[in-house]
Write a structure and sequence with these properties.
Layout: E1 2-6, E2 9-16, E3 36-43, E4 67-68, E5 101-106, E6 113-119, H1 137-141, E7 145-149, H2 154-158, H3 168-183, E8 189-199, H4 201-210, E9 221-225, H5 235-249, H6 255-259, H7 263-279, H8 283-286, H9 289-292, H10 309-314, E10 322-328, H11 333-336, H12 347-358, H13 362-370, H14 377-400, E11 405-409, H15 428-431, H16 441-444, H17 450-466, E12 480-484, E13 489-492, H18 496-501
Parallel strand pairs: 2-4, 6-7, 6-8, 8-9, 9-10, 10-11, 11-12
Antiparallel strand pairs: 1-2, 2-3, 3-5, 5-7, 12-13
Helix pairs in contact: 5-7, 12-14
């Protein structure tokens, strides 16, 4: 057991031994330590229940006796993972009200190490900082203080009828970053060298934080994995979603009425809305959700989030923040392969879906097909979806933010008889250097390449430490990106003919 101090009281953590590889990773992040200190479930805000349910996060009440921080704390309310994707995108559900908490892995309490704060994904309706793949032991082993956080999800985090405070989930993230600024020195971290990074909805959160005035000064570098700056909704769309949720629940269209609904019923209604939007994504019915397929997501309210993040970034917001952004080569396969949807796509459906869902004309589909002569219609649809949702938004962000570094993760997983490929979430065990996590075995297969994890993990640490991941920055005239695969290297302007198809779309 070991004790650390916070502004609210002492916390008691544990000591763990990192793996005993004969050649442990090393980086400019700090010296490799013999042990790692871990503190879990540390509250950064008061429980968001009762009168605090739909209010901005409030500081936790102080305590005097050491707080037990040896196990993960509660997670935000959500359903358990079920169905075809459960093995590929697992969830950790821990009941309890005090779920605005964070977890810390550190090489020691007296250093001045770079700090990395991870924001989990999950479509803004699921996920937590307690998943085993996010275990930060190997970051701490290599000289980084690693923090994972929870934040309000679904209606509790993003429901807005137009009154009260919007974007509570984002304000939770800012509260966690504020806690890090004020307390992380007591865990051996440098509050003047904080990198915020996230994946999927977590990456969208990172890019939104870049555009939020309340987040200024709380972090110095940012990494966005498989998510960029285009997934926000307008106030009008937020009201559409809120009113539809109230209709499904049979309640008055107010936060107070929603708060009176049992949590399991509310979660079921949230999932119903998401399924309805995905089944018939019509702009006349769903507004911006027809484009994002995320009913509960950040809203451009004009105050907490003054304007769309990409517009703010183009105007200079976050210009002093070092940025690393990228995507996986075959992101959409996660949603098409394990579910069997991709196998049911034929040529007529491919052309129809590309036109109606992505605004891509027949000539564009033909270009994707010509570049993949052996691909099935489902494979081609996956490529189009990947570019529309992930690759092109990442490149647009890189063009909007000077000095941005770009990567593409291209290692192909052998899962699903080799069909899963470089799908969504596959890069996460490589980033955290957790290839031996049993929870990832279904996704990664029997022998994922450790040398690739060494490369990716080190690049993230180098970037967090110095702002330079090890390759040149991306520009609109020199489109350099780092290609992570079994044989990695630097590439220039990958798939330019396909990239140009998305101009003005």
């Amino acid at each position: 057991m070991t004790l650390a101090n916070t502004r609210y009281g002492p916390v008691r953590g544990t000591t763990v031994d990192p793996d005993d590889r004969t050649e442990p990773n090393s980086s400019p992040g700090g010296s490799v330590g013999a042990e790692v200190l871990v503190f879990k479930g540390v509250p950064y805000a008061a429980a968001p229940v009762g009168v605090d349910r739909f209010e901005p996060p409030r500081a936790p009440e102080p305590w005097t006796r050491p707080l037990d921080a040896t196990d993960y704390g509660p997670t935000a309310p959500q359903s358990r993972a079920e169905g075809d994707l459960a093995d590929f995108a697992p969830r950790m559900v821990i009941p309890g009200d005090d779920y605005l908490n964070l977890n810390i892995w550190t090489p020691g309490l007296t250093g001045n190490a770079p700090v990395m704060v991870f924001i989990h994904g999950g479509s803004f309706t699921s996920g937590s900082g307690a998943l085993s793949v996010y275990d930060g032991t190997h970051f701490a082993r290599d000289g980084v203080v690693l923090v994972t956080i929870n934040y309000r999800l679904g209606a509790d985090g993003f429901l807005w009828f137009g009154d009260g405070t919007p974007n509570l989930g984002l304000l939770d993230q800012i509260a966690a970053l504020t806690w890090v600024r004020d307390n992380i020195a007591g865990f051996g971290g440098n509050p003047d060298n904080v990198t915020v990074f996230g994946e999927s909805a977590g990456a969208m959160s990172v890019c939104t934080l870049l555009a939020m005035p309340a987040a200024e000064g709380l972090f110095h570098r940012a990494i966005a994995q498989s998510g960029a700056a285009g997934n926000t909704i307008s106030p009008e769309t937020a009201r559409i979603v809120a009113n539809r949720l109230a209709d499904v629940l049979g309640t008055a269209p107010t936060r107070e009425a929603i708060a009176a609904v049992p949590m399991d019923r509310l979660i079921a209604a949230q999932e119903q809305l998401s399924q309805q939007a995905a089944a018939k994504p019509r702009a006349k019915v769903w507004g911006d959700v027809a484009r994002t397929l995320l009913p509960f997501s950040p809203v451009v309210d004009g105050d907490v989030l003054p304007a769309p993040p990409l517009d703010r970034i183009r105007a200079g917001a976050g210009a002093n923040i070092d940025l690393l952004v990228g995507s996986n080569s075959e992101e959409a396969r996660l949603f098409l392969v394990p579910t069997g949807v991709g196998a049911r796509i034929n040529l007529p459906l491919l052309y129809l879906g590309a036109a109606l869902r992505f605004g891509l004309p027949a000539r564009g589909v033909r270009k994707y097909r010509a570049n993949r002569p052996d691909a099935t219609p489902g494979d081609v649809l996956a490529a189009i979806m990947t570019d529309s949702y992930y690759r092109i938004p990442a490149l647009r962000l890189a063009e909007a933010h000077p000095g941005t570094y770009v990567y593409e993760f291209a290692w192909r997983s052998p899962a699903c008889k080799g069909r899963l490929g470089a799908s969504h979430v596959v890069e996460l065990p490589f980033v955290f250097d957790n290839l031996d996590d049993p929870a990832t075995a279904t996704m990664l297969g029997l022998a994922p390449p450790q040398h690739l994890a060494d490369l990716v993990h080190k690049a993230w640490i180098d970037f967090a430490t110095t702002g330079d991941p090890g390759w040149p920055a991306y520009t609109s005239t020199n489109r350099i990106s780092r290609h992570f695969a079994s044989a990695s290297g630097t590439t220039t302007d990958d798939r330019p003919t396909e990239r140009r198809l998305w101009a003005n779309r």
